[in-house]
Fold:
Amino acid sequence: MIFASGLVCFLLVLTAEARVGNSSELSFCTETPECLLFDLICKTKDYEVRHYDSVKWVSTNEKSFFMEMALPVAFNRLFKYISGENEMGKKIQMTTPVVVKIPDKRFWQMGIYTMSFLLPTEHQENPPKPTNTDVYINDTPDVKVYAKSYGGWMTTFSDSSNANDLSKTLDSVNAKYKKGSHCAVGYNSPMRMFNRHNEVWFVAEGEPVCEGKSSEETD
Structure:
């Protein structure tokens, strides 16, 4: 890992199965049995354009100054939900990625961070209702995103640096995308020390721009 709160940064499908599938289909999804799958529209040296179908997520909002303060609180709420804090008392398998909607703000301003766990295939059609009123289920729309990958740890600095780089690149080719927020996307647990995979996403508006596309482009 992208809502009622505006987590439009996300992906996803119109079918009951959605595009939640076997993690073996993505080289960088290695820690959970299932992940969010996508269709690669094109790839440049700076970014990928992906199509995600509509899927269901479990989400929560946390108001804070910094990502590092908001994420542990939000993660704990969502982890309790998949550990059985839901109306069915059901334990739910962890999936990837975990997606966080990051507000575009000054560092001294408070912002609302929205964290979402992707629901596994088993619970895409009828997920258990949360018992915590700060946790909710949402469907994200069928969408195209501009995605940039990077390694290391996801921090306020690394996320904002990569988001700024991607934004500048998109602006330079006159690509249209939703502004005001972006998505920080993580595929690894805190236990993993090396070969980590993170991404930043911007939601594309209109026809995506694929200038400088590589031979990996797909239709």
